[in-house]
Design brief:
By secondary structure, the protein is of the alpha+beta class. It is built from 9 helices and 13 strands. Keywords: ATP-binding, Kinase, Nucleotide-binding, Phosphoprotein, Transferase, Two-component regulatory system.
């Protein structure tokens, strides 16, 4: 939400987002004062005056926005950024919802964390890859030389375990090595492919629900990466539903919606896709919530802890975000990807 105001707070310009939040027409907004729309405006008044007089070039503060044109709507806590306009005493006031600002900070931390994690994984995987080849080769040579059946069993164990670790290393390197193939993607085709794979693996006791917004347009993306990302999340959900599958009432819902005027990172997008993958399982354990997207962190015995890490990597490569909300009986993973 952006407004240009004079030193006295009179609104000279406001963008559509600002008008929408206030619930006022452009004419009413531009004939009013920004101080009239803020609870306890004294701090904002002093800040606008100081920036207008070039005491500061920019300043930040917390405020609560009144919404006079929006009936039965609570005031909105905002983070205000006040910048001076070059060659003018007018100032630009940018308002960010506190929740939005918190989300942006969280997204930035997640991106920084993901970059550091990817670099660590890439270096670790390369360090493991070379000796693994040597171990496997030595075991094969030993097997050829030996005549003992017991020795053959031992060498086979070495070879199989080396192959298993090689497969794990390949998965670690996959997001960095595979090309990003961009084409037109229909998110419902992605969901249907994932549904068929999940139901093939869990044919009894699990139902899937489609809650699709048919108006969603296609967008540019890597179809295979998106299938893998959604499959990883849905597969985790299915594995968490073991008890409900046995009881016959397990359910995974795929829900798509259009989101408008979405801010991802620091960029505003007119149109975005929202995909919810919801299950009625026991919920994400509290101990895992802060680390759930970390590599090699798994809440399941035998799990590699790579599914959600790869899912987040693939979604971030589409300039999107992935978050989750979880309580016992309901977990929702929300993917947001810009379409315009």
């Amino acid at each position: 939400m952006i407004a240009i105001v004079g030193p006295d707070g009179d609104c000279i310009f406001a963008n559509a987002s600002f008008e929408s939040v206030l619930g006022l027409s452009r004419r009413n907004v531009q004939s009013g004062s920004i101080f009239d729309w803020v609870q306890d405006p004294a701090v904002l008044r002093d800040t606008v005056a100081a920036v207008s007089n070039n005491v500061f070039s920019t300043s930040r503060l917390q405020a609560v926005l009144r919404r006079p044109g929006a009936v039965h709507v609570e005031p909105l806590p905002v983070h205000a950024i006040v910048n001076r306009m070059e060659g003018s005493s007018n100032v630009v006031v940018e308002l960010l919802e506190v929740e939005q600002q918190t989300r942006q900070d969280r997204e930035e931390r997640a991106l920084e964390q993901a970059d550091a994690t990817k670099e660590l994984i890439r270096n670790l995987a390369h360090e493991i890859k070379n000796p693994l080849g040597g171990i496997r080769g030595a075991a094969q040579l030993l097997e050829m030389e030996g005549e003992s059946k017991l020795l053959t069993e031992y060498t086979q164990v070495i070879i199989k375990e080396a192959d298993r670790l090689q497969a794990l290393v390949d998965r670690l390197l996959a997001p960095h090595r595979e090309p990003h193939v961009v084409s037109d993607v229909n998110i419902h085709e992605v969901c249907e492919r994932v549904r068929s794979l999940i139901l093939a693996e869990f044919p009894r006791g699990l139902t899937t629900v489609r809650d699709y917004d048919a108006s969603l347009p296609e967008f540019r993306g890597d179809r295979e990466q998106l299938i893998q990302a959604v499959l990883n999340i849905a597969h985790n959900a299915a594995q968490a539903l073991t008890e409900r599958i046995e009881a016959g009432d397990a359910c995974i819902t795929f829900r798509t919606r259009v989101a408008r005027q979405v801010t991802l990172g620091k960029q505003r997008h007119r149109l975005a896709l929202e995909l919810h993958i919801q299950d009625n399982g026991p919920g994400v354990p509290e101990a895992l919530r802060e680390r759930i997207f970390f590599p090699l962190v798994s809440g399941r015995d035998g799990g590699t802890g790579l599914g959600l890490t790869l899912a987040r990597t693939f979604i971030q490569q589409h300039h999107g975000t992935i978050e989750f909300e979880s309580v016992p009986g309901q977990t929702i993973f929300k993917i947001v990807i810009p379409m315009q």
